[in-house]
Amino acid sequence: MNRKGILAVVSGFSGAGKGTLMKLLTERYDNYSLSVSATTRSPREGEKDGRDYFFVTREEFSRMIRDDELLEYARYVDNYYGTPRKYVEGELEKGKDVILEIEIQGALSIKERYPDSLLIFVTPPSAKELKKRLTQRGTETEEIIRKRLKRAAEEAVGVENYDYILINDDLEEAVLRLHRLIQDQHMRVGRQLDFISDMRGQLADL
Amino acid sequence: MNRKGILAVVSGFSGAGKGTLMKLLTERYDNYSLSVSATTRSPREGEKDGRDYFFVTREEFSRMIRDDELLEYARYVDNYYGTPRKYVEGELEKGKDVILEIEIQGALSIKERYPDSLLIFVTPPSAKELKKRLTQRGTETEEIIRKRLKRAAEEAVGVENYDYILINDDLEEAVLRLHRLIQDQHMRVGRQLDFISDMRGQLADL
User: Fold this and answer.
1) Does the CB of B160 have a partner CB in chain A at under 8 Å?
2) Which of B164, B181, B194 should we substitute to test contact with A (largest number of A Cβ atoms within 10 Å)?
3) Distance linking the first and last C-alpha atoms of chain A
């Protein structure tokens, strides 16, 4: 049986609850590895190098691109964000299911490179709920929230190329569904061809 | 949201436990409709017309083919088996998830006609276990069991075009997994395009 891990990419509107989902998922099940992105932006208060991001210089980031050390990268506002390849491939080889939390542009590059990766887009049940969640955070001004909501519609461009839409209405339910969606991938025919071929061999030998 | 039902096709080795799986699935969850095949073969003892099969004459079967009343049909030994279209399409429209238990050849025709149908192949965990299950049934002679096992290897031809392999090791676990595999399809992006488009509309209106 093919025990190589699943590469799952999770994207979604800001305010959809991705962060909490990832936190609960990795706390509750021990078969997941969360990929840490490299970025050229400065650390915010409380962020730790190697845990939240790998904070690198622009020169280092350029070198990583040149040396094919990034699975994908994207520019967002004035900063670059990328997924270090070595960690992801190492964890997959070990049989870990690896989760990348990245935006749509990067996710679609991953799908091109790894056609059997799983793309999941997380969304709140409605725009009204999204607004409520962003407001409740209390970390942003009303002006920024308005901009975010305006941008959200654009953020969803390309989502029709994802595999699944996960509506995060009830958090507990959403964690379970996310877990199942990823675990079900182990049953995909493409991952079970060795099993089938073994089975045929056994049948012929009976 | 697209509430149209899922069309799930279940195939597998004889002895894989498909019958019991179907029985438990439809007993436990009320969103499933099990399609009943039409056949030209004679009813066996205990089989009931309309429940186990629709027993029809060869002439009637030919007419159904001609009038496009069958979603797929196949010849097996000297008899024909087919899936009546009207029932399946009616149930899907009602939002029911419809299950067809048919063999590989028919399943692949269904997939061609309905690309978003879900093809699941059920298998016991090993050839040894398959032999054990066929023997325990006690309904077949050793000669027939030997022939069945020989044929099983051929039965799996084309299975690489299925979506999922369900290993029926523990029956309870297998029923749950089958249920989840089918229900997860409701989250597929292709079924959620209306939701996404509504969401975009709502965001633009905020």
Assistant:
1) yes
2) B164
3) 21
- The answer to whether A55 touches A42, Cβ cutoff 8 Å, is yes
User: In chain B, count of helices (H) and strands (E)?
Assistant: 8, 9
* Coil vs helix vs strand at A95: coil
Euclidean distance between the first and the last CA atom of chain B, given in angstroms as a whole number: 21
B157 touches chain A (CB under 8 A): no
Q: What pTM was computed for the model?
A: 0.88
- Cβ–Cβ below 8 Å for B177 and A187: yes
Domains and CATH numbers, chain B: 7-35+97-205 (3.40.50.300)
Residues A133-151: tens digit of each pLDDT? 888 877 778 888 888 788 7
Q: Which residues contact B23 (CB under 8 A, 6 or more apart)?
A: none
Count CA atoms within 13 Å of residue B150 on its CB side: 6
Provide the ipTM.
0.85
Q: Cβ contacts of residue B64 below 8 Å, gap of 6+? A: B38, B56, B70, B82, B84
**Beta bridge mates, B81:** B39, B74
Question: How far apart (Å, rounded) are the C-alpha atoms in residues B125 and A199?
Answer: 9
